């Protein structure tokens, strides 16, 4: 007899159509094929750097709402990584990139931060874990495929893709799945699915905004 699916596995199953749509985004396709333009990636650097600030706030809220020391420490480490390693990447990549971002880039992509912060205020720790599980599963999946089988350009783009395909990132996604699995049983699965698919839909709008 097959074991019942965990909460995270049920989320992945329920959201599979939206996940597949996200994996076919123009941004993912062009980065994987090595065809993204310098101007479009400049805009991505601008909007993703802005979302890193939002992700820092999400993990900070998760520190506040962490149910145990393990969760507290994991989210604290994420805050540190976002404000050091990832902040350094964006500062260096933007400084070295051959063209600047278009002036309205960050404004065009506000949808992701707006959705994530509103849901986090409403749903607290469970919403944060569910949304981050969605976003990081998406990135692990497409970056692993691009890293292993794509024609990702050398330099800043390859470094960014590789960061989201390495073992440390994979372990982080696994830890998020475990946090989702440990959420209270009285929290309806439908509510988790709403947060998960909503985050993926916001990710699609966010990445489409790269192209103006």
UniProtKB/TrEMBL annotation:
It comes from the Bacteria. InterPro entries: Haem_Oase-like_multi-hlx (IPR016084). SUPFAM superfamilies: Heme oxygenase-like. CDD domains: TenA_E_Spr0628-like (cd19358). This is Uncharacterized protein.
